[in-house]
Design a protein that fits this description.
The chain has 305 residues and is of the alpha/beta class. The protein is 39% helix and 23% strand.
């Protein structure tokens, strides 16, 4: 579009490009942007004319970005970040904020922290909404691509542009159904049982499973689940054991008994992770401070008495 006035290119078009890129679907992008599918398609057509490129092509049941779209996405992220900095250069006022905040977390962190966080955020910023993404095995690209604002994880992704801060540490416990068995009295008793654990995709074990394997502790794993939320039904009504973070006792594994492992195990650290471009962003600083605040509240609520 040779005569196109670049001043007509706005942040909404750039965000739309990135959202379609991440979702690989016009329909899902429309849902995420709270737009109609036809409105997203119309905006994409406008962008195609501007850059003289199809941007996306059909690929199976979805769409894939062209090489040109991939390159433009990098520029779009940079431009959007400059826009955010331009706006946040003025005094930051949460009460005027209208934004969806995306946080990647597993089901332990999600249930323990994020309901409290949303309540706190909306008390100060009624226009804020929260989008929770499964963290699984978090990648650097999740943060570089603006797919999420923060990641909460025991295993921060490795990248020179990634910042991390330790939130807390949890102790591992052995969970079991007290109606079906007693706590394992010894390491031999522990090893004689069947075990249930979590395995992520792509294949990766929990830190505790890697640690036990490294100590030569060979257990009989009878089931691998994709998250903590599925563990309890596999333990209830059986003699199986599950060695998992102790904080799960307050929610997802509340119906099970637990005891200390029959050997010394390391704690499980939990980290807050973000991209360095957000280090000095007032909105992001506010978000991180509030998450640290609710973390302290959540941990205090676990203390007896």
């Amino acid at each position: 579009m040779k005569n196109f006035d670049h001043l007509q290119l706005d942040g909404r078009l750039l965000q739309l490009l990135l959202t379609v890129m991440e979702e690989r679907s016009v329909t899902r992008a429309a849902e995420r942007l709270d737009m109609t599918q036809s409105a997203v398609s119309h905006a994409l057509d406008k962008l195609r004319l501007i850059v003289d490129d199809p941007l996306f092509v059909k690929s199976g049941r979805g769409i894939s970005p062209t090489v040109r779209a991939e390159a433009l996405a990098q520029h779009a992220r940079s431009l959007l970040e400059d826009m955010r900095r331009f706006v946040s250069a003025a005094s930051f006022d949460p009460a005027r904020l209208q934004r969806t905040i995306s946080i990647a977390a597993n089901d332990l962190q999600r249930d323990l922290l994020l309901p409290r966080l949303l309540n706190l955020l909306q008390a100060e910023a009624p226009g804020v909404s929260l989008r929770v993404l499964p963290s699984g095995i978090p990648t650097v690209e999740m943060l570089r691509s603006d797919e999420c604002d923060l990641v909460i994880t025991p295993r921060p992704p490795d990248g020179s542009d990634i910042v991390q801060k330790r939130l807390f540490a949890d102790h591992y416990r052995v969970f079991y159904d007290a109606g079906c068995r007693a706590a394992p009295a010894s390491l031999d008793d522990y090893l004689a049982a069947e075990h249930v654990t979590v395995g992520y995709t792509p294949p990766r074990m929990l830190d505790i499973d890697d640690f036990l394997a490294g100590q030569g502790v060979r257990r009989r794993i009878s089931a691998w689940l994709p998250g903590f939320a599925g563990i309890a039904p596999f333990v209830q009504g059986s003699s199986r054991l599950a060695t998992l973070p102790g904080l799960l006792a307050s929610n997802l594994l509340a119906g099970l008994a637990s005891c200390a492992p029959p050997l010394t195990c390391p704690d499980m650290p939990m980290y807050l992770v973000w991209h360095q471009r957000h280090r000095h962003d007032p909105l992001h600083i506010w978000l991180r401070q509030r998450l640290e605040q609710v973390t302290q509240q959540a941990l205090a609520a676990q203390l007896p008495g």
